[in-house]
């Protein structure tokens, strides 16, 4: 009889635990609902994007956002049947924007750095890139070694800013709040060079034409690029991973890659 009572107690405990798991919020250790539940209910999705970093994201004269990341953001909102609200971010403000709840997800060229993954949840990659150096067409700089003693522009909180500090101690970093400010500094001669991602450099080449050239050298810090979300919301992270998995094998993804980056979507992120 005692064994029977124990079995009933154990079964009841297991049932209670199961029910608790089913009604949990999706954010570990909190009572807050998952962002996924909130978006499905409100039909509104707030996404942090760049407004001045071509080809990832720019705001045109009409106030509309467009770019490589914007394509992904709109496709994500459509998958949820939600109305998208864009909020402009910078390299330095991306993670704080998530931590303070000002954005449901960041889609703004967020590179998969190990130290970054300790403070923000990163999805599976939706793009891959490296870092390149751009100089004026008539610059005497022709190699990475030539950057010694030169002023090199980068944006605060970016991978290039980290690379300059760790790998180019003889260079003189000049850090700006936005990519647009970095490009303007190069254009006006305030800096000798600019370091940015392959995607951003593609946009600079397009806008600046023959006024600039890219150093003929292997890309620095080859890496993956992901969406970013606040730590602890596994349900939301799972959905985003599933979305990217399906999106990256779609015709729309390849068309976006070719339009903004000039190449087909890489096999390694499909």
From TrEMBL:
A GO BP annotation: amino acid transport
Q: Does the keyword Signal apply?
A: yes
Keyword list (alphabetical) reads: Signal, Transport
Alphabetized SUPFAM superfamilies for the sequence? Periplasmic binding protein-like II
Query: What family does the Swiss-Prot or TrEMBL record give for this protein?
Result: Belongs to the bacterial solute-binding protein 3 family.
The identity of this protein, by name, is: Bacterial extracellular solute-binding s, 3 family protein
What lineage, starting at the top, does this entry show? Bacteria, Bacillati, Actinomycetota, Actinomycetes, Mycobacteriales
A UniProt-annotated Pfam family: SBP_bac_3
Position of the signal peptide: 1-28
InterPro entries found in the cross-reference section: Bact_solute-bind_prot3, Solute-binding_3/MltF_N
Which organism's genome codes for this protein? Mycolicibacterium brisbanense
Query: Domain Solute-binding protein family 3/N-terminal, which positions?
Result: 44-264
Give Gene Ontology CC terms.
extracellular region; outer membrane-bounded periplasmic space
Would I find Transport among this entry's keywords? yes
